Amino acid sequence: MSAPGESNPTSGGSATDWLKISPLETLRTHSRFFLTLRSQEGTYHSLILFRLTPGQLPESGVDGGAPSQSLRDQIYVMEANCPHLGADMSHAEIEECDTGVVAVCPWHRYDFDLKTGHSETGLRACTYATDIREEDGIDYILVETPSGGRNWRLVEFRPVSEEFADPPPPPPDLSHLSVSSTEPKKPEPIVPADDPPTTLIQWAVLILNTPDPVLKVQRTRHAVHLFRTGQLKSIGHRSAKAPRPPDMPPREESYARNVVDPGKMARRKNRAVMLHALANIEQWAIDLAWDIIARYGPSHPDLPPAFFADFTKMALDESKHFSLLTARLVAISPSTPYGSLPVHAGLWESARVTFPSLRARLAIIHLVHEARGLDVNPGTIEKFRRAGDPESVRVLETIHHDEVTHVTTGHRWFTWICAKQGVDPVQTFREEVRRGWRGDVKGPFNAEDREKAGLTPDFYENLRGEMESDWESAIRPQESVRVGY
What we know:
Blueprint lengths: L6 E3 L7 E7 L8 E7 L5 E8 L15 H6 L2 E5 L13 E5 L2 E5 L6 E3 L13 E2 L1 E6 L2 E7 L8 E7 L40 H9 L4 H16 L24 H4 L14 H26 L8 H28 L13 H7 L5 H29 L3 H32 L3 H12 L1 E3 L6 H6 L4 H4 L3 E3 L5 H4 L10
Antiparallel strand pairs: 1-2, 2-11, 3-4, 3-12, 4-5, 5-9, 6-7, 7-8, 10-11, 13-14
Helix pairs in contact: 2-3, 2-5, 3-6, 5-6, 6-9, 8-9, 8-10
């Protein structure tokens, strides 16, 4: 049988190809999962796997039978975006009707049968058959592969959010995120009392202009929840009145006092300094995820909703990473809270080079910086393992897993825009790096995770940037220790 994530043609003359996803037991932890598939030709398909509870099934669904058969009856897979206007279906409501079980789009209440994909509106969503097969005593879930591609592979498989965990966890404690300050601050509401945002673009700009990291994380979670659940009816990128993002996101005064030139950053050695540096990178990563939405959405009205779904997911991930890292920082070094040690803005300065071009942004930030993170993550994780810090190791491993999907997202939308422009993605990427990077794209490379994310060696081997500005000092400090960007 094929390894997880590789397609396996069915024997016996059937035209159906199957992709092995994961052990069946994995699905018991959450009720909804993101699946991203990529074909040999580079085509992406985003799917949602729903594991229904027995109470959501028709009465004939799960009574009796083997445990695997009962769970089989609970599993449905459909395309991740509504065929009406492309809404994210990850937070669709599940309802029972006379003909079966339907997923109801959160934007306009279009309903789609989870087995057939048919809707009473006449539209049809793509649904995918599932199967359960035993191998070496372990039951695995398989999903039918999309038509029109060869050698499909799984490049992302993870829960939609902890909101769909079994059981859901308690609300997160964000108290550790506060930057040390001698002056008490009046709490600012998550939703501004005056002129609250009504579009995703407005939320993106508001979050970019939020200096307080606690509030930045809270607003990110709130905005993504509104978007996923259909409470934001508009992305807002086609509006002539869409707000502009800042050239430089503001930071709290206590944080700003510790910003230094990247070239003057000391080599990071102890765990507290390393965690602080990583948290700083993740705070900038939150901003970069919102910036790509706010800066390029209005200038690219043809961007589909899936683009915004992918980058809001990334913003949510980066806020999770920031929270995990600052929690570990407080746990091992209470005297050095986030914002109390030297930091730099080298990542944002590198992004400024790409302001004129979405294609350049995807290349430089997601396929150079973030891909470099995949290369150095294992070494960083090993440092914490040798230090006897298993809690931080688990945090860093979670971050690394997520960052592979972020590079995949960068590759997906870089190849999308190249296809729209009729240019070769590999040669175009190499040209973007030559224009927007200074110096060699250095190894050693984590070829396995890069390839999983779509970056084959012809993208990055023997590649050197020729940018004629002195950005090297802004880039060099990030090479010594990094998880993610």
